[in-house]
Amino acid sequence: MSWLIDSVHYDCRYYIGEKPCAFKEICHQCTEYSPMGKRVLIIKLGAMGDVLRTTPLLRSILKQPGNHHITWIAEKVSAPLFVHNDMVDRVWTAGWEIIPLLLNERFDVLYCLDKEPKAIAVAAIAKATEKYGFIADEKGNLHPANPEADYAFLLGLHDYMKFEKNEKSYQQIMFEACKFTFSGEEYVFNLTSDEAESGRRHLKKRGVGSHKAIGVNTSAGEVFATKRWSKNATVKAIKLIKDMDMTPVLLGGPEEILRNAEILKEAGNGVVDAGCDNSLRHFASIIAALDAIIVTDSLAMHLAIAAKTPIVALFGPTCPREVELYGLGEKVVSSPDCAPCYKSSCDHHKCMEEITPEAVVATLKRVLESSSK
User: Quick check: 348 pLDDT over 60?
Assistant: First the structure.
């Protein structure tokens, strides 16, 4: 019996302990043994779009020599983003239940890419030989965890640096903070062939035929509602798309149910309603099935980047320079004196009002021409 105990591969990435692993073999007979190697902890809790645009970091980590075992801590709402992601070994949902796990385990490297109190507190208590990104001191205050993260830290303190001086994308900033060099590493988000087909079936069932399907997702969630394009502008853009003999596909989430119903009524026939009750992964499959998408700086934009769907991205109160489109499209940027501002509310919405439907559809034409080459 003792020789069986001695043969257990406690350091195998597939080891579970309380039950057999996926291969259901006694360790000494198993040919799938894969040592964990360097144990890595990534902390990125934030908005789902931000979690997605942090996933390129996985590619740089795994380019390094040797094996790596990666644990990612994220909010529960972001968990579907990691389904079928074979670069991440474990996803821990942020909450009290992970505290004993953090106190027990030790990691070789920790990367914290969030600045919010919960994230940096986790970074502070986690045991790791090397820590990069952001961390909390004993007062709970934010600090850069390493000198390379100073620039990313200062962007949060100085509006001039963030809004006027900075020319780097989020990926460049994040990679530098983690002592990597960004070389165009792409998002890591995998749809299965069945999921991709479900998106195509969804559009066909809703009325998309042989014409190009152009997604229109001009919502922005509730945190930064100022990113939302106006209903009137959205309706006019939809009508211009129909005039081009293409099929507009209206997209949105639960917050857009009433708004999208009004848009559909005003836009008239020939518009496909993709629905506002799709799961996250099904929503992604719908975006992947489009010929192009008009979208604000939002989760839908990041899902389009992940799916490599041609993009027309609208920017008002947020920083367009921080968004890496990977050559998938163009940005339409307004430039009033007050933008960018990152305000959650505004009494005039001047920045988004400056973006005209005519300019957006002209950009769409260029993007479609470019993507067809």
Answer: no
**Cβ atoms of residues 24 and 32 within 8 Å:** no
**Domains assigned to the chain:** 1-35 (no CATH), 38-177 (3.40.50.2000), 194-371 (3.40.50.2000)
Residues 54-74, buried b or exposed e (16+ Cβ, 10 A)?
Answer: bbbbbbbbeeeeeebbbbbbb
By CB neighbour count within 10 A (0-12 exposed, 13-18 middle, 19+ buried), where does 325 fall?
middle
Average pLDDT, integer, range 302-318: 91
CB 89 within 8 Å of CB 69 = yes
What whole-number distance in Å separates Cα of residue 61 and Cα of residue 48?
21
pLDDT at 316 over 90: no
How far is 138 from 350, CA to CA, in rounded Å? 42
Phi and psi, residue 71, nearest 5°: -110, 135
pTM for this structure?
A: 0.92
Question: How far is the C-alpha of 37 from the C-alpha of 142, rounded, in Å?
Answer: 30
Query: What is the distance between the alpha carbons of residues 288 and 310, in angstroms, rounded to a whole number?
Result: 10
Predicted local confidence at residue 340, as pLDDT? 57
What's the rounded Cα separation, in Å, for the pair 185 and 68? 18
Whether the predicted pLDDT of 373 surpasses 80: no
DSSP 221: T
